[in-house]
Specification:
The structure is a single chain. By secondary structure, this protein is mainly beta. About 15% of the residues lie in helices and about 45% in strands. It has helices spanning about 5-30, 50, and strands spanning about 35-40, 55-60, 75-80, 80-85, 85-90, 95-100, 105-110, 115-120, 125-130, 135-140, 150-155, 160, 170-175, 175-185, 190-195, 200-210. Strands 12-2-14-15 form a four-stranded antiparallel sheet, with no helix packed on it. The protein has a three-stranded mixed sheet with strand order 13-1-16, with no helix packed on it. Strands 5-11-10 form a three-stranded mixed sheet, with no helix packed on it. The longest helix is centred in the first third of the chain and has 27 residues, at about 5-30. The radius of gyration is 23 Å and the shape is globular. The model is unreliable at about 15-30 (pLDDT under 50). The protein binds copper (II) ion.
Length: about 210
């Protein structure tokens, strides 16, 4: 058989092989996992409500975390001389809109390195935005109104949940793989544990917000 006639057949075989690989890859992506559970606090004199807000989040160990979706953009309003909401959790790389809904000037700034920023003063109806690239807590202030305080927790991946008042959380749409499951509260040290998720797995967990002494 002349070489020229064989080439298209090779190309077809290669294409079919590639399609097979792509199908195998997408089958695991089509079977996302979930992590649900309840967090508990056993610390004398402290109730769960005292340490809220608490964020439970996953940090992937096998591959870098994907960028968060570009829309809808998370938003912190300045309304009635308060940040609304006063607490928000976002994924690293998120751009947060900060519209001024009041009739007076406000400013938003943060000293929380390495996400520190200053949006300057801006009037009613205007909105400015900040992109938070680094995981960690970001405290918000207004240079005019001392009583205006707020906070944003930047999770290292889009897979996070803010704990409900009942201590429950649900993180869905997670690809299979190995993760570090971590908890954050401004009032508690971070806890970490490794978990592994098989394709389509719905994992149920009890999470202790304070690691037992070893
Ligand atoms: Cu203000």
């Amino acid at each position: 058989m002349p070489l020229r006639a064989r080439a298209p057949r090779f190309a077809l075989a290669a294409l079919l092989l590639l399609m097979g690989v792509a199908a195998a890859g997408s089958s695991s992506a089509a079977e996302p996992c979930s992590v649900r559970g309840r967090a508990s606090l056993s610390l004398a004199g402290l109730a769960l409500a005292d340490v809220q807000p608490v964020v439970v989040y996953l940090e992937p160990l096998d591959a870098p975390a994907p960028a968060p979706p570009a829309s809808p953009r998370p938003t912190v309003h300045q309304r009635d001389a308060r940040f609304a909401p006063r607490f928000l959790a976002v994924a690293a790389g998120s751009t947060v809109d900060m519209p001024n809904d009041d009739a007076i000037y406000h400013n938003v700034f943060s000293y929380s390195k390495p996400n520190d920023f200053d949006l300057g003063l801006y009037p009613a109806g205007q909105s400015r935005a900040v992109t938070l690239r680094h995981p960690g807590a970001v405290k918000l202030y207004c240079s005019i109104h001392e009583s205006m305080t707020g906070a944003i927790f930047v999770a290292p991946s889009p897979w996070f949940a803010v704990l409900g008042a009942d201590g429950r959380f649900a993180i869905t749409g997670v690809p299979p793989g190995r993760y570090e499951l971590a908890t954050w509260s401004e009032r508690l040290p971070t806890t970490r544990r490794e978990i592994a998720l098989r394709a389509g797995e719905a994992l149920e967990l009890e999470v202790a917000l304070v690691e037992s002494a070893r």
